[in-house]
Amino acid sequence: MDGIRLEGVRRVFPLEGGEVRALEDLSLRVPWGSLTAVVGRSGCGKTTLLRLVAGLNEPTAGRVRFLQGSEDLPREAVRVGLVFQEPRLMPWLSVEENLAFPLVGRLGREEIRRRVDPLLELLGLEGFRRALPGQISGGMAQRVALGRTLAHDPDVVLLDEPFGSLDYFTRRALQGEIGELHRRTGKTFLLVTHDVDEALALGDSVVVLRQGRLADRVEVPFPRPRDVDDPVFAPLKRSVLGAIGGTAEDPGRTKEVEAS
Ligand SMILES: Nc1ncnc2c1ncn2[C@@H]1O[C@H](COP(=O)(O)OP(=O)(O)OP(=O)(O)O)[C@@H](O)[C@H]1O
């Protein structure tokens, strides 16, 4: 099946003479073009999962595959962009220069402009192109970080708690923008978040990790209701919360879930 596929992935980190099992026997499929949200308690392995997909870490066991039909694409053939919780902009470069930075030296001036200008427009940053990061708000800075990732024209966009440091209203506004961006670009998005409402509002499906294992996968019906308080979400939210934390009747439960 097409998409990113994790097969029996295990990732262990050595720590103080012992080891931490960040991921254990994780099998997961992320279809091309989907927006998959990943939730779970702190330390359950969400960031490790993103780092494996980005190729920043290798699995200790198992594999991460990129499948087109029955063909395995080489990792180099799949462009992956990563957006962190903190924007990590260069403070001495303007908004426009930050967006262009990863392209300088790889593309000519005109081509860079052709990529950067539509991004400024897409992200509502046209009026701030010459502003420095210290002169814009946190929400705008996070938009620049997103734009910098999109400037690479990635096939896969990995978002690690991208709204974590933002206030409620900016967060809601950016959530809407990410959803819209996903629809408009058709790229594959993998979003790590602590916020179950956010995961349900944006994800085509919500993957729940628990102690490094797949605890549940909840599919969100399409078309999704606009409001996260819509009754459609209530049972889905209960499932996700139950899988994250276990339930009173079944503490520590880890469900066996279909790999694909
Ligand atoms: N480089 C590392 N060295 C040692 N242990 C690590 C390393 N990276 C992650 N871990 C451990 O692996 C486990 C999973 O970490 P990970 O960062 O993936 O969790 P997370 O779900 O993203 O957490 P959070 O929500 O707090 O960001 C944790 O116990 C963490 O301490």
Automatic annotation (TrEMBL):
This is ABC transporter related protein. SUPFAM superfamilies: P-loop containing nucleoside triphosphate hydrolases. PROSITE patterns: ABC_TRANSPORTER_1 (PS00211), ABC_TRANSPORTER_2 (PS50893). Keywords: ATP-binding, Nucleotide-binding, Transport. Residues 4-236 form the ABC transporter domain. InterPro entries: AAA+_ATPase, ABC_transporter-like_ATP-bd, ABC_transporter-like_CS, ABC_transporter_ATP-bind, P-loop_NTPase. It comes from the Bacteria. One of its GO terms (molecular function) is ATP hydrolysis activity.
